[in-house]
Design goal:
7-stranded antiparallel beta sheet, Alpha-D-Glucose-1,6-Bisphosphate, Chain A, domain 4, 29% helix, alpha+beta, 3 helices
Length: 142
């Protein structure tokens, strides 16, 4: 089973401010509550240590992430691979009269029982976390 979620955020801020956050692997990882820790390796690569509260998982899951597409300051797409799931995240920024719009799409393909159910129940909260972190950062940069 595949879980797919999309959400769009509107900002009264320049697209460059939103790009500075969303194109940063460290800031993206820090905004996700189940990412307990991470290492950024450069070149668009990072390792996430993900803790999922599901019965089949008793320790953190190593997720190797890598940017697969980058079109500054408009679009970034990353793929994360692990033994438990594969995640794809795509962020696209378009300018508006008042600032910009950020379209987000995430797809999770689970490989263990319970992974898709967890993400299906919790994706909205994770997107709220991402939006909150973005809004705090954009405000702080102004």
């Amino acid at each position: 089973m595949t879980v797919r979620v999309s959400r769009t955020f509107e900002f009264n801020a320049p697209a460059e401010d939103v790009w500075a956050f969303i194109s940063d692997a460290e800031k993206r990882a820090a905004a996700i509550s189940v990412v307990e820790s991470f290492e950024v390796h450069g070149g668009g690569r990072a390792t996430w240590h993900v803790g999922l509260p599901i019965p089949m998982v008793r320790s953190t899951i190593l997720v190797e992430t890598e940017e697969v597409e980058r079109d500054p300051p408009r679009r970034v797409k990353f793929v994360g691979k692990s033994s438990a799931f594969r995640v794809t995240g795509e962020h696209t920024i378009t300018e508006t009269e008042a600032g910009c719009r950020l379209a987000n799409e995430f797809v999770v393909d689970g490989r263990l029982p319970g992974v898709e159910t967890f993400f299906k129940r919790n994706f909205d909260a994770e997107l709220d976390n991402l939006e909150d972190a973005l809004r705090r950062t954009v405000r702080a940069d102004r």
